[in-house]
Amino acid sequence: MVQRFEGRVAVITGGASGIGLASARRLASEGAKIVIGDLTPELGKAAADEVGGLFVPTDVTEADQVEALFATAVEQFGSVDVAFNNAGISPPEDDSILTTGIEAWDRVQRVNLTSVYLCCKAALPHMQRQGKGSIINTASFVAVMGAATSQISYTASKGGVLSMSRELGVQFARENIRVNALCPGPVNTPLLKELFAKDPERAARRLVHVPVGRFAEPEEIAAAVAFLASDDASFITASQFLVDGGISGAYVTPL
Ligand SMILES: NC(=O)c1ccc[n+]([C@@H]2O[C@H](COP(=O)([O-])OP(=O)(O)OC[C@H]3O[C@@H](n4cnc5c(N)ncnc54)[C@H](O)[C@@H]3O)[C@@H](O)[C@H]2O)c1
């Protein structure tokens, strides 16, 4: 494996599971020191141990905990070269606007959108001091497409992540800090399996829109994260980086 992250440090929120875990493994395999911030201590610690990194128990909705996460990375390993702000939730109470209550709306906004604001706010001063950095914020393909199977707060939160990332990418471009919004299509992770993949009918309703005819594997998203995090993406910033199996480009898909 090419060692694109030798001597670099990556902070990954939501690194205990799914896309975050696959990305921790991928970045570590290319030489990065990994710091995982996650709510779940057992899985988070296991993930960090597996990749020879550090686990910092973190609720990404709490400003002081987020600041401590990035400060710990600098204290322990010397820098924050990559911030993969990826923790997110998709609870069943977040559904049609007609049935979604304000509590569910607020919770999803806090975990999916406010957290990205807090993580970028905490990571940027370290990157400014270093004179470099790559921030990757996990949005979603639903930030650019509408779904009749609505999750209204989730979709709105990801739209917010997308436009915030674009603006930060523009604002900090001349400080050698890149900020991109990663927009995955549906991925085989616990989040998606819990939501609908275990129900064949609900899965089929979605799969028909995917030109490649399947959901992504977390490792395929992790490969894109590693690319965006690396110097191979040195001219890519403020982008909506779609890794979606062609969904957003499709009208009629193959039978
Ligand atoms: N799975 C998909 O199909 C898909 C598609 C597009 C975008 N996404 C996005 O990708 C990201 C990762 O999703 P995933 O599928 O890997 O999910 P996942 O459920 O497998 O992992 C999410 C992780 O985030 C952590 N987390 C949740 N709330 C937290 C909080 N308050 N503080 C700290 N950590 C918290 C969880 O403990 C978990 O480890 C999310 O932002 C999700 O919205 C997922």
TrEMBL record:
GO molecular function: oxidoreductase activity
Sorted UniProt keywords: Oxidoreductase
Lineage: superkingdom: Bacteria
Cross-referenced CDD domains: SDR_c (cd05233)
InterPro entries xrefs: NAD(P)-bd_dom_sf, SDR_fam
Annotated family: Belongs to the short-chain dehydrogenases/reductases (SDR) family.
Protein name: NAD(P)-dependent dehydrogenase, short-chain alcohol dehydrogenase family
Species assigned in the record: Amycolatopsis saalfeldensis
